[in-house]
Amino acid sequence: MEKDLNGAVDMQIDECGQNKHSRNQEDQDFSSNILKCTMESSSLMQTFVDGYHGKHPAQDQSYLSRREFSFTLENDIYLRFQSFKNANEMEQSVKEKCPHKIDIGPVYSIDPVKRHAYAQSGSNGFAPVERELVFDIDISEYNDVRYCCTGSDICLDCWPLMAIAIKVIDAALRDDFGFNHILWVYSGRRGVHCWVCDSKARRLSNEQRSSIADYLHVYKGSENSSKKASLTGSVLHPFLVRSYTNVLIDYFEKKLMHSQKLFSYEERYQKILGVIPDESIVTELHDKWKADRKSSSCFEENRWNQLKSLLQSRKQKVQGLRRCVEEIVFTYTYPRIDMEVSKHMNHLLKAPFCVHPKTGRVCVPMDPQHCDSFDPTAVPTLSKLLEELNTGGWKADTENGWSGTSLGESIQFFRSSFLQPLLKTCREEMESSYNAKVQSNKNSLNW
Ligand SMILES: [Zn+2]
């Protein structure tokens, strides 16, 4: 066990770019702190997944043991279908195996560890029965519309794309689907995850999940086509109109168009013009912009206005042309969710508060109301937290032990804005279904 632990420590130190500790005492302190860090994150996470039930006579005792956890160990060794009877057992397992990453899967009909025994006995009852509705949005899906970063990198210039996704999806989940218990987390590297934890969301079938994902989906382009949003029909769906007016257009005109310099370079504006199906308009704009060689800080604003007025003021008979302005904005801003993650109950998703193995950043919850000011590059890393804990003395086993660290605010937000309201609702639901059951038993006795 000690060997495993030291292995994990070495990895973290390497990734954080620090020197390996050589002295024994220091090594041990460091190891034990890493362990505490992992345990705190797993116990918080465990509260999150077990918390639906609490101690109530109507509680389903087997709930936690039917939940799949997946551990990723060093060298990408995956341990799927882990399950635990209680928090202690989970902590023990985390201690022993020191996973670099913990993913959460669905709750199955039976304990996933025993799935083979059930299969051998001829009963075919192993299937997911409950799972939070989840969304995964990766910045790398936007690589064709951002120029500040490549690959999985993310910076403050492209973060607005994530902020847009959070705002658009959060509003739809609350206003159109009536969900209340929604947790948004920064994944620690290249994107954001959303966990919808209302009981009616957890019980959705795969088909219902697909419908919700389809409702949110307009991104239809292929890698080679400039048009990445297909807006069909004579009027736009009210949800798309609302997203456009309340979120997309502002972000496009005030932020992204400028930060990505979408009209300053021929290669970039060619891509925008590629969305317009009318060749004479494309040629007119292209020639005008190409001839205008003066460098100007207002390229973006001027050219965007020229494009808009040409498309919108010509009394275009073809409706598709007028729609082009919206299609450009949708192409450059609209959320691009990973559909497969949302559609299937048995998709795994990284647990909140885990440390991302590649960046060392903690997967922190964030307030969707303030996602604009969230800075993914300033998220606490494991090495930073350990430093803070070492200097401040370890206190994380107490209720507010993290308050002195840079993780304190996230944990406070997680508990007060998400976990407590969620647990309150779950208790109330359990109470009312329990009372209804008691009442119906009484009634049947009266007969
Ligand atoms: Zn960037």
UniProtKB/TrEMBL annotation:
Keyword Nucleotidyltransferase set for record: yes
Enzyme Commission numbers on file: 2.7.7.-
Cofactor: Mn(2+); Mg(2+)
Annotated InterPro entries: DNA_primase_S, DNA_primase_ssu_euk/arc
Record GO cellular component, one term: alpha DNA polymerase:primase complex
MF-aspect GO terms: DNA-directed RNA polymerase activity; metal ion binding
Keywords: DNA replication, DNA-directed RNA polymerase, Metal-binding, Nucleotidyltransferase, Primosome, Transcription, Transferase, Zinc
Enzyme class: transferase
Cross-referenced Pfam families: DNA_primase_S (PF01896)
Single GO BP term: DNA replication, synthesis of primer
SUPFAM superfamilies: Prim-pol domain
Family: Belongs to the eukaryotic-type primase small subunit family.
Cited PANTHER family: DNA PRIMASE SMALL SUBUNIT (PTHR10536)
Name the UniProt record assigns to this protein: DNA primase
Organism: Vanilla planifolia
